[in-house]
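Form 7-S
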Amino acid sequence: MGSPFGRGVAEGLPFVVIMVPFGALFGVLGVEAGLPLAQVMGFSVLVIAGASQFTAVQLMTDGVPAAIVVLSALAVNLRMVMYSASIVPHLGSAPLWQRALVSYMLVDQTYALAVQTYEGRPAWTVADKIAYFAGVSLPVFPSWVGATWMGAVLGARVPAGWQLDFALPLAFLALVGPMLKTRAHVIAALVSAVAALAFAWVPWNLGLIVAAVLAMLAGAEVERRA
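Output:
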């Protein structure tokens, strides 16, 4: 387990505890929303972004226009652009095919672990960093896809008492908490929470987009002044 790849696998394994109920919940909700199994699995294999997938399915269930569904899903996933920009200094010189695979597997869990580990190990080569990222991804992706399939197949047969919906807030709390390292991070998180509650009345969940924009502006302003 001393290799970067082995370390990545070991540090990525705990996320299975979150990814399994998270993916199963999406599978259940996707089937309940009327999507066939192929479309539910297509979401998880092609999009690989739980928050935007839940957002899209919920809006589709509510009969929201397709343009709003796409816009909302893209807005939720805008954080991936920031993830990409943040990780370029570490992996930007890797071969194109490796960067393509990293971009495919760049999700909240893999990014959170990778960027923190890279910063703590400046002596690692690009090959070491790629190997670590691959190791982290190994338990994360199969558990997400497999759990989605399990939830979609079981569908309504999953007992209501399991309360799988706990996985959504828990997953993001586990990711966001350790990353609140500066005043700008804390202010952005606080503004996003307050604004999301204040704009909860906005139709089609568009209040979340407003909250995200306000949070980014607040964090950027704090960073500028500092």
